[in-house]
């Protein structure tokens, strides 16, 4: 694939990802669902172009999200985890052939990223997590548990979409951009 085609594909995926992130204006529920779906679009880049372009696309979407998305919490969740997770997971699947170890490594990274994201949102963007602290430790543990359930579902969805992409679209995107 020519460099101009790679740049075009990267730009298309970045634009679509930012559009998904902009959906947080529609509903507060999308604060936690938009970042994972925006990150899933990186499958196109990973499968057709490679890691370096996927990382560049992730960086572009992260910067744009932080600057133009009003809901900074959503931008932080994309930047600190869901944006780079497809790159990380693909790398882990290639390097660690033992699936449970690969998954546990990803789960560990997710929990560290979740902690950093909550801290970053609180310290730098003034996101109020008082609903968790008012409810005590149990509410914060419930939040972490629910986010881990979301992560497991996201990981499953990512792996299934990756296989589906390989079966149905592999090579077709490159072929489209050749002409």
Explain the overall architecture.
By secondary structure, the chain is mainly α. Helices cover 83% and strands 0% of the residues. It is built from ten helices and no strands. The radius of gyration is 17 Å and the shape is globular. 30% of the residues are buried.
Helix and strand sequence: HHHHHHHHHH
Question: Based on the structure, what is the oligomeric state of the protein chains?
Answer: single chain
How many strands, which pairing sense, and closed or not: the largest β-sheet?
A: none
- Globally, the shape reads globular
Separation of termini?
A: 10 Å
- Please tally the helical runs, counting DSSP H or I stretches of 4 or more residues: 10
Radius of gyration: 17 Å
Strand content: under 5%
Query: Which parts are unreliable, with pLDDT below 50 for 5 consecutive residues or more?
Result: none
Question: What class would the helix/strand composition place it in?
Answer: mainly alpha
* Arithmetic mean pLDDT: 86
Percent helix range = over 70%
Number of strands: 0
Name the descriptors.
179 residues; single chain; globular; mainly alpha
Compact overview of the structure:
With 179 residues, the chain is mainly α. It has helices spanning 3-22, 30-40, 42-48, 51-68, 72-82, 85-95, 99-124, 130-134, 137-168, 172-178.
